[in-house]
């Protein structure tokens, strides 16, 4: 069972040296941060607390027609020109496994990966694609390492599905604030269970709004055992190189 001694993410010191592998801080491209000034404030908050690297992972989905490789790289360049801090910034994406993704796969798309060939993917909360196994296999066949975003949030996944994905070399990425209920009791319960079972490899903030995440990371408490388990994931994050 998880220990009772509790600390917030900030007071635990875990954020010092943290590499955020999943966030929506690149401004004006999805449902995350909208303005350049707001993105710079997020990076300022990160820097004040010791974050050393940030992987931008904007949503890429069939309905987000503007979120192609060229436009996202252009937006990253605009932010880098404004940012004067010391955090290392890299661009990846959070790819929805939808029909649009299958088209990109068929077209041999050079997917945006913030670290090597590690690709971040997600499904809808209610249902994964019927041919999900085939999609993941094709990605692996092309040399990609797959990071599955927030599996605790998928209602359709159960222990059998988790174990099958892990057996195929899929890495799980925990949303930090799933553990304190930001995404509901279902995600909280599953997140805690998967963390206790050692199923996760990475952890990210999935930050969309600074106010929400800042408050939760400063106030909400994690048990001593959760802090210990998170420390292992954070170490894994730190081992991911930036770039190709």
Question: Can you characterise this structure?
Answer:
The longest helix is centred in the last third of the chain and has 15 residues, at 224-238. It contains 8 helices and 11 strands. The termini are far apart. It is 37% helix and 18% strand. It is an alpha/beta fold. It has helices spanning 36-48, 69-82, 99-106, 132-141, 159-167, 185-196, 210-219, 224-238; strands at 6-8, 19-23, 53-56, 59-60, 88-91, 94-96, 118-122, 145-149, 171-175, 200-204, 221-223. Helix 1 links the parallel strand 2 (19-23) and strand 3. The strands form 3 sheets. The chain has a 6-stranded parallel beta sheet. A 3-stranded parallel beta sheet has the order 2-3-5. The model has no long low-confidence stretch (mean pLDDT 95).
Write down the overall mean pLDDT. 95
Radius of gyration: 17 Å
Give the end-to-end Cα distance, rounded to a whole number of Å: 40 Å
Count every helix, treating DSSP H or I runs of 4 or more residues as helices: 8
Order of helices and strands: EEHEEHEEHEHEHEHEHEH
Shape assignment: globular
Order of strands across the widest beta sheet? 4-6-7-8-9-10
Count the beta strands: 11
Query: How is the main sheet built?
Result: 6 strands, parallel
- Uncertain regions: pLDDT < 50 for 5+ in a row? none
